[in-house]
Amino acid sequence: MVVTSSRAAFARSLRLLARNPAIVVPGLVVGALSAVIATLLEPADPLESTIYTRLLQLVVQLVAAILSIAFTTGMADAAWSAGKAAFRDGARAFQRDAGHVFVAMLVLFAIAFVAAFLAAYTFSLSLLALVFYCIYTMPAAVVGERSGFHAVGESIEIAFRRPRTTLLVVAGIALIAFAMGALAELVHGVPFVGPLVAAIVIQAAIAYFTLVIVGEYRALRQPAA
Question: Domains of the chain: which residue ranges?
Answer without folding.
Answer: 6-220
